[in-house]
Amino acid sequence: AVADQVGISIWTARKWIRIGKRCGKENLASFYGRPETGPLAGFDPMIRYVALRLKRQHPKWGAEYVLKKLGEKSSLQGRSLPSATTIWRYWRSFGERLFAKRDPPTSEISPSDKPHGVWQMDAKESMHIPGVGLVSFNQARDEFGRVTVMHRVHAEPERARQLARLTSETVFQDCRIAFTQWGMPTAVQTDRDTIYVDSGRSPFPNRIVLWWVGLGIEHRLIPRRTPKRNGTVERSHRTLRERTLENQSFSSAEELQKQVDADWHELNHECPSRARGCHGKPPLVAHPELLTSLRPYRPEWELELFDIKRVDAYLAKFTWTRTCTSVGQLRMRKVRYSLGYAWAYQDVSVTFDPEHRQFVFTQIRSKTRKGKDQPKLNPVRRDAINLSVEDITGLPGALKNLPSRQLMLPLLISYPQLGGMTF
Question: Rounded distance, CA 340 to CA 18, Å?
Fold first, then answer.
């Protein structure tokens, strides 16, 4: 009767009557086009929404924990939940919009085969030393000859006795002292501490790295969570602790620095070493060529040694990504650049133009704002700020006329023998 009344075959009428009895009248609608595909496509849209919202609000939460939270939501009670693997696959479908870009796999870097080719640099921070307080040790070791070329002590002032952290200025001073004594290396290898690179998905090199580049020193970053790649300097931390610090107390940071200098001088010149390539001899006996500086350095030569064109060429290799604020601003190396209100909430790629020394800001994709489609924006240029020679080196032009002894003052504190030298 239904088939005759509607004008369809009895088989079609019987099919839809059975669907109505089995699934309810609300499912008697036909859906045209290809069915929705992809992770979570077969689940309630509210499941997808909540799973994505929780991940955006808590980027560190894993799929198993988010699944637990989904089961606790009163609004999702009675609804079928996916597996943790399906939730993870759904997140991954968003790519870099949800997950930080991973470091590309790096090939095994062969050890340096020449003196002062690579210095491994690392700091041991917030160590409590009896009689001194909280101290940070900044050390560097030559990868080829296993000679410790930097061993600086930094004690925190009395007003800041809860945490000891190195600053960019202390690293600058440490490097200048080491460069004066040993010369400049070809490369410096570090971990990803925020002193060297900004934190975040698209880090900008910090001032100390740009300074090294301007001096012709390559900066090498080890992959995340691979301290063994800096094993030589990590071993020097253990040696320092066992030889100088354990069961010892010092009256001041100056006394501690003198003891550290004396111990490392003895280890470098007199004590047999089991390090690779030393063959049981002291490092500087096994590799006397380390005593010859191939790239000599003095603080008063720095402005001549520093080449800003190296910095420009280095920055031109990168592309950074940023998201503008509600007023169309973003930050590059702690400097705020304003692009205009039209750029609010836009994802932007940033490149550096070395010829004009400008940052070029390009819209990645157009985002809607207040329900309205935004037009495609033309690239915007802004002059680079805080990237001049004086900004990077910290040596203003007035220092060129200062007596060399004033520039050597930090060195004379630790190396009095330099006081009689003329430059």
Answer: 60
Q: Determine contact, residues 118/109, Cβ cutoff 8 Å.
A: no
DSSP label of 325: -
Is the full-model pTM beyond 0.90? no
Name beta bridge partners: 187. Answer: 118, 218
Distance CA 143, CA 114 (A): 9
Under 8 Å between Cβ of 201 and 100 = yes
- Three-state DSSP state, 275: coil
- The answer to whether the beta carbons of residues 90 and 40 sit under 8 Å apart is yes
CB 121 within 8 A of CB 137: no
Taking only the tens place, the pLDDT of each residue in 201-240 is 788 999 999 999 999 999 999 988 888 889 999 999 999 9
- Residues in a beta bridge with 138: 123, 152
- Closest by Cα among 256, 235, 221 to 147: 235
What residue ranges in 292-343 does DSSP mark as E strands?
Answer: 320-323, 329-332, 335-338
